[in-house]
Amino acid sequence: MNKGLRVITFEGVTKRYPDGTVAVDNLSLDVPDGSVTVFVGPSGCGKTTSLRMINRMIDATEGRIRLDGRDVKEIEPATLRRGIGYVIQQAGLFPHRRIVDNVATVPYLLGWDKKKARARAMELLERVGLDVKLAERYPFQLSGGQQQRVGVARALAADPPVLLMDEPFSAVDPIVRMSLQDELLRLQSELHKTIVFVTHDIDEAIKLGDRVAVMRVGGRLAQLSDPATLLRDPADDFVREFLGRDRGIRRLSFIPARSVRLSPPPADLVVEDGRPVGWQSGDGLQPYGSFDPETDSLRAALDAMLLSPNGLAVAVDGHGKVLGVAARDALDAALPGAADG
Amino acid sequence: MGAGEEGGVNWLVEFFGDPEHWSGPAGIPARLLQHLEFSVLAFLIAAVIAVPLGLWVGHTGRGALLVVTSANAARALPTLGLLVLVVLLIGVGTVWPVLVPLIALAVPPILVNTYEGIRGVDADLRDAAYGMGLRGRQVLFRALVPVALPLILLGLRLAAIQVVATATVAAYVGLGGLGRFIIDGLATKDYGSVFGGAVLVVLLALAVQWAFTLVHRVVVSPGVRQVR
Amino acid sequence: MGDEPLVRWDWIARNWDNGTPYAIKALLEDHTVMAFLPVVFGLLIALPLGLACARWRVLYQPTTGLMNVIYSLPSLALFSILLSVTGLTRTTVIIPLTLFSLAVLIPAVVDGMTSVPDHVRQSAVAMGFRPLRRLLQVELPIAVPVVLAGLRVATVSSISLVSVGALIGQGGLGYLFIDGWQRQFPTPIVVGIALVTLLALVADLALILIQRWLTPWARARRAA
User: Fold this and answer.
1) Chain center to CA of A204
2) Which chains touch B (3 or more CB pairs under 8 A)?
3) What is the pLDDT of residues C188-215, one digit of tens each?
4) pTM of the prediction?
5) CATH no. for residue A48?
6) Does an interface of 3+ CB pairs under 8 Å exist between B and C?
């Protein structure tokens, strides 16, 4: 696949229906190459419409959408769509086709050799974390979460540089949703696709997005920024309210714990083979909380501190060996509030 | 009732046991062939009219109200009335007099079920098909038709059975087919013939039923069969 | 055929109400009764049977199998066979047509009950509805559109099929087809076809109106 600049540009895009309803109002933004941009907002904010205008499931009334500089309206819709992965809420799998053939749909359309298309499909099933034994089953034999993984595999089949995901994880239960989100992040770290993701769930947006576009009813862009900035500086009351409570706590997820000053471990931390075991307390051991300063966020460090009975978070390295402990004042010092009020 | 049943069995034994009923232009094989001839012809013509129309209307949504309403109205057309009228107007030289009412009978169920089948396909599936870059015809034939197939086949089966059962009426205007045993038997009070003819038509209809079950098993994907 | 017109209006005027049992008006009344009674009987039988099939699914397969067989019986054959039992009466026509109605209505009742969303049924149970009340106040109202769709098909087919009864001397407007055929005179045939179709359309329209009246929520949804 050529690794050119894959950027999507909205230039003053408006969608107005014949009855006068405005779904999207003068939207201008860039979706940079290799990043995840999330459109988020309450229902009726035009987020799905905006997404569907990219692959021309809906055509814009005014303005222009460019894909790599080319106006999408100049590209024949079916051709355009075959080059863009598309994942929707109910997966939309073909019930009459086996899983492997579902995944190979676009390669077949592109005229790939059947063997090659099926091999590619099998590879993708593994890639999205599915047992290849499922390949010969029919969609109704799979759980909702599995179907959604197949939906993602199908969108990736022809290796499109751009992926559009329309509330792909809203119909599954929270635990499955969480694992699907983690899976997507892992895939993205390998594949570096240009992804546009639509959700009504602000937590999902913050977790997945490199950039988050908050939209308000009437199809207007309220704010476009990275998640940390969004949590720190909501543009207005609407965004603030939409972000909800715990904004401060959630923001900590985006601050690395690297800057937390560590102290040497006190004597009552029981350590075996360099790894923490628990806090000595009378005859027994009390549980402890730990974090890895290299990979974890301040939120994880705070969590580790709250889990330990004595308010000390244990810092460990990638192998689980004790590096030191962090006390409340060390965390305080690392908190952004301490510096910028 | 007991005596009647016994009479029925005796009549049947008499009817099917008579070797004269098994040969010649008025025998069971010849009548069966005639019956099949105009049933199959009427069914095929109706399918060629109704299936494409139903697919088109279901896929585009154009003219849906008109088509469904007129198909429902066409269900009301009395076959016997149409038959005698057509024969009166164009004579019995060809099979057309019997084909016209049978086609009118078969088109509505095929049309309505095909239309409903296509229209009833999950909107998400349609959306996904377009979203992956299938073109209009590909969406119809690769995504919608396979999923709508059970309903389309149901329409075809209902139509086929009605045609086979109703083609008996053709005998009234002097045309052939299994109806002759019934109509002629009624006229001569030969209840063995009436009964025997009825049994033959029922057997034929059951064979049609069975054939469709077989077709269903072959052409409908297991993935779709399970969903319904 | 020569110069014989398709319709002779004076014939219609003379025979509309000529005092004999074969007056068009009398035949129309006859036809209406013979067409509607089977549907009414069919509905009365199909409701309990359909409900039983919906509750005990094991019954469903054999019942639909039997209904498929009944559906494939030629009406003429049934009339002829019954003729030897019930004679030249309306019953000879009404019994087979009732069976045909059943073949359409039982699946319609079962489908209707299946169309009740499980969460609705569950919440009715959770709120303390006992089975009978739940059936009457929750499940049947929701099943109405599907059952009525079946009722429309059954009614229209019944109206159309009555005319075949004319071949055994009990066919309402179907008499006009026989009469026209025997005299090689198209007017009665055209009148018969027109009236049968018209009767079916009026009945269909009435059922649509009944459905709207029974399901006001669907109307509100349509308007929205």
Assistant:
1) 6
2) A, C
3) 999 999 999 999 999 999 998 998 888 8
4) 0.81
5) 3.40.50.300
6) yes
